[in-house]
User: Fold these one by one.
Assistant:
Number 1:
Amino acid sequence: MDMWLQAAGTVFAPLNFLIIVAGCIFGIVIGAIPGLTSTMGVALMVPVTFSMEPATGLMLLGSVYCSSVYGGSISAILLNTPGTPAGAATVLDGHQMTLKGQSKQALGISAISSCIGGLFSAVVLATIAPWLAKQALRFGPPEYFALAVFGLTIISSLAGKNPYKGLLAGVLGLLLATVGMDPVHGIDRFTFGSIELMDGFNLIPVLIGLFSVSQAFVLMTSGKVVMDAVFSVVSGKYLPPMSEMIRLIPNFLRSSVIGTVIGVIPGVGTDPAAFIAYTEAMRWSKHPEKFGTGIIDGVVAPETSNNAVTGGSLVPLLTLGIPGNAVSAVFLGGLLIHGLRPGPMLFEQNGDILYALFFSLAVTNILFMLIGIAGTRVFMKVLKIPPVILGVMIMLLSIIGSYAIHNNLFDVWVMFAFGALGYIFRLYAIPLAPVVLAIILGPMAEQSFRQGMLMSQGDPMIFFSRPISLVFLVIAAASFVAPFLRKTKHHVNHA
Amino acid sequence: MILANRIFAGIMLLIAGGFYIAAGAYPKDAANWPKVFSGVMALFSIGLIRDTYKTPDRETGAADPLLILRNKAGLLALIVGLSFLYLLLLETIGFMLMTPFFVGSLTWLLGYKNRRKTVMIAVTITLVVWVSFELLLQIPLPEGIFDDFFRTMRGGLF
């Protein structure tokens, strides 16, 4: 208890609190700009922490991390453009809510969901982190493969009106994910001699292209030089009524657990977590057919889950010294700079700093929710910009955001290629989510499958003989088939 | 949409074939995964073509993508052309000179015919992006012919 009181004292010390607020605002802005990721935001802040006390520096990094994951939802909801990969799943229902004049509520619920997910994972981090970290170590290649397959099954739910097109989009994504070095033997595949392609397509320009550039094309070719009438009507309140919030409790809880668990497993990250939570919300819903049409459940699930990853991803880092994703790798740098060596001893030797960090994560989640809700009116002003000008602005930010990743034009050309693909897919009414999901999970699926086969000397039963892997595969099979069965049942009932 | 879907399926079939043939050049281990999925892609493409005959009314009412592409070809060519020009000259001429030109001309040519506002928008966006990236985030933007000038200015500022 003393430890927590001391932590509260550190967090609420005026200078520390101001730094956390500044970190939240910076994180939200970074997250909302397409191309600038949480990793970039945290990395930019590491040098700033040099001169700070260790606890203060870590609190700043934590606040930027959590709020940038939330910030990605703002542009996803308003512009159909996820600011960070974590916001890709939020686009599905978030932007549809904007088109229905419910942007205010979408932004409000996204702030609340992110806060709940983040708070949940911060509590988990502060209480059962060492136990969770041990469980995560039970994940070997077969489990990773089963998890990736489970995540990929959402493609069948997102396939849209014509399932062939959705499935084709997913398989195209899986093939595009094979570009680059082969994950086991390191052989160049489909790179055509390009050094830049050896690491495969960088996810950020791919996402910016598919979502932002294609959206910019749609806006710029709309010919609308005055404010879009669709956005002139903004109805509803910031928050849904209490009865609706109570109905959403299972979704909040489920998505928080999914996000935290996925965060704990090294190498998975915020984007798959958001998609998996979305699939699960759809699977547990009484009206799965309404997902993708602009319903609040479709914003709650990904937003709760992606922010729940934040605390989860710090579990293996702080307890075992294993950075589970790129942001925690940068975070590791931040810890080492201040002479803190992650691992079991960290809790004993620097408990005061860690508890201050845990407490600050909880405070950060509440702060960015308040800033997010208070800023909703300001964020929504973007909708008053005439579509043609908004399109040009998105195009410029997409170019500069992609350029800023490695300071080279190659990423910008990749972004344009995927932008053209995204625009054509939009015209053909082909959902973009299956391509994105496949590009995110494809490499993990291939690598873990091949490692699993090597482990078992070519016996595929390895994927069915381990309990965690088997459970994931069974659920995956059920969730892949379910949408098709539902459609068949629907056709039979209406015949 | 039927013709558009057949064209789309045909292109996907070609891509699948391309991946399958190119994968043949790699060792078996590295080739298996892309080969399997190019096979799956070919199957789905054939499935889509078959579907256009079996269920021709599946997407009734959907806008014809070929018609939209034909109608907007001029505008798309303009956007792509100007964007490519911007990218090709960005590193040589620099962000500060190229961006107002890119934003201003694109906005104007896309139909926003208020000269004063167009100039204002072009200059404001350029300055906001430059200040945000260069000064606040310390992310360098291409400076082109202004390289020396900005280096001196940054030296003076920080």
Number 2:
Amino acid sequence: MVFSGIPFLYYFLPAVLVLYYSVPRAIKNKVLLASGLFFYFYGEQLLVFLMLFTAFWDYSCALLIRSAGSQRRAKLILAAALTVDLGILCYFKYTDFLIESINQLTGAGLPLLKIALPIGISFYTFQSMSYVIDVYRGEVEAQTDPLDYATYLTLFPQLIAGPIVRYSTVAAELRNRTHTIPQFAEGVRRFTIGLSKKILLANVLGEFCSAYAEMPEKTALLAWVYALAYAMQIYFDFSGYSDMAIGLGKLFGFRFLENFRYPFVSKSVTEFWRRWHISLGTWFRDYLYIPLGGNRRHWLLNVLVVWFVTGMWHGAGWTFIFWGLYNGLFLVLEKAAGSAFLRLAPDRFSALSSLRYLYSVPVLAVGFVIFGGEDLGAVIRQLRLMFDLSGGIGLHAEAAYYLRDYAWVFAIAVFASLPLGKTALSRLLSSENGAVRASVSFVAPIATAVLFVLCTAEIVDSSFNPFLYFRF
Amino acid sequence: MRKTPKSPLGSALSAGGEDGIRPNRSPDDGAHGGGASVRAAGGISQWATVLLFLILVLGGAVFCVCKAPDEISSSERRKLTPFPELSLRRVLSGRFFEDFEHYATDQFPMRDGMRRIKALSRYYVFQRLENNGIYLMDSSAIKREKAYSESTVSKNVELWKRILEKNFPSARVYYSVIPDKAAFGYAPSADFSALVRQLSSRAPRGSAYLPLFLSEESPLLGLEDYYRTDLHWRQEAIHPVAEEIARGMGTRIDSFDAYTVRSAGDFYGAYYGQSALPLPPDSLLLCESNATRNAEVHLLRFDEKGKGIRREKREVYDLEKWDDPDRYSVFLSGPEAAIEIVNPAQIRGKSLVVFRDSFASALVPFLISGYERIVLLDLRYLTGDAVELLEIGEVDDVLFLYSATSLGTIPLR
């Protein structure tokens, strides 16, 4: 079930809201647990038991770690927990990739197992792993109620496409949380903004990208427009989903951490990754990079290892590994260039610092092309189109027509990907003039409702509605 | 808790997220003028947000559950998904949920209204040129045909050749292609000229192309000759086209003076539903003459065993079809595999077989006056082998008349 579908918006969500707010506080977590299990069952049926096994396994391991008695024993239990978690993830996600790679290297011709990847397995496995590690480190108390732990892991707002919500973030709220009108209203607003990002921008940009794929003639200029449009499609798709998750969390009294922070204002790859999929970046930092030695020893190797794994996490394919290492390479280069880079173009806004966009935008655009390529061959063909100017840089009639068709969508997407709207709204809300602030208060609920209706209308009449981060 | 170190992998962010908008100073702090009223406005705003959302979501849910499912969408001219069959096997395989997804979307209350909202927002808010592949030009809805398939054209022409050799070896053969409405629009569309060139290079030997369309010297067709809300041409506008075809085949037909034009009523074409825009309807006009009134029209249908032929009497303008989702079907009863038209006023006149699509339904009534017998065959609903079973017999002329879309995108049978 996707958040941006009629079954979720007009069947599942209203039913869960009514049920959740009808039952006493003590039963609310059970309602959320049942809702999460049904939500997952709707998409993956019996694989819901795999998720429940992960929940039960890590819940049990955490309790055993707590009562282990010795550090060595605790470490062994932790190792067992992580081995099983990673084993399940690797079996479902990487077995066929491994067989395929062996076949390519040796020509062995081993048959593929054609294992279907359970939706969201990368997200919930990482969440569950972080819980066990945090218990081992003594950073959170082990949960004693198995149902509460299962509630956390199956919490439907963040179940299948993140953000990666750590147990420590919601541990207190699982026990005791408040439900207020301001929080519910903020949740509604946030959910609607996310839904609009997904439906009104990401899906439409996706239509452009599909049209691009079918165009018989492509020029360098068009190839660059595609790369930027694809980058924005991925951004609005994923950040839209995160907004919806955060908004839904608020409807049920939870506060999830932010997952995006206007990544397209970044003037370097390093900055970009501090603003993009923050929950994943911080997860790898805390659970892999720092344990490997972080900045203290052989950081170069640590960075490359982390980005190799980051690529693998995103998908079982060489393009993802290549993409991860591509990012890692630029992070290393930027760190090596260090202060010289900053002196040349300081962080604070200036004409000189703006020049850094001439570096960051193309590098990031190429990264998205690698990320979106069907295979390495397709990536190379697309990069050739972008950098080979011999085919001309102009636009043929069909491309010009498409650019005119999507011109406003591109303009709105660029505006929405920058913090301009947020800044303007904050200024209005902070205005000395009470009438201005009252006007904003008056318009906000109407605008939210209008956006919700517009999204519904789009869904009712649209067929293009995939979530790109589902299979990660 | 551990202190968060900086690293090149991203850092924990203390600031609010991109949409976590907070005023620099809360309206609640009373620091601004009119603090009480603004506080009240903020509170009302939050209540209003919650109430509007609950009305939309809960009200929508009640509507969704209570609304009786519709069988068809007349504006989209398609069947809507019914409630899926519920069984344990289908639930466990996930097929029930997949079908439910389609059901819930198809059966959403006020579906047409929602589709209209979407169309209006795409055209007027997002300034898009197209919605569902339809754009507007001079108040006419046009669908852009992206490309014709060379292999489909080749296969279709090979089928023509086989049919001719087997059934009509001695007939004079003509062919022509009707340009899509998109050929007159401003958006780039599939290359009609290239289609005609390919067709001419592969056409049956001895056949004659009737170069009627898009000729600069003789522009017989323009955008205004098509319905504004549909893909088809308007019958009252294409008599010159019929005359040109007849002339090409060495036949004389009645002049337009012989016809009286009468309105059958409002016509909302296929593009009306697809575009979902509030376009005004077309007027569906019928051109009647003694030839059309006296013609004996029979639908030729195979009996249940597929061997014998059943003949069903109809009229040139089949007004029983007026209540069909597609009112264009009043022209020669709409999509039919085989139709025979006999003109009793033409004794020992010529005979003609037309391999055609729906465009011919509006044009052939003009040809009736020039022939004793016309047989229309639609290879979208009739296989090439079945033509022989119809036992059409000797004919003088054979005309292949297809729209560019049919010829270039639909593999004929």
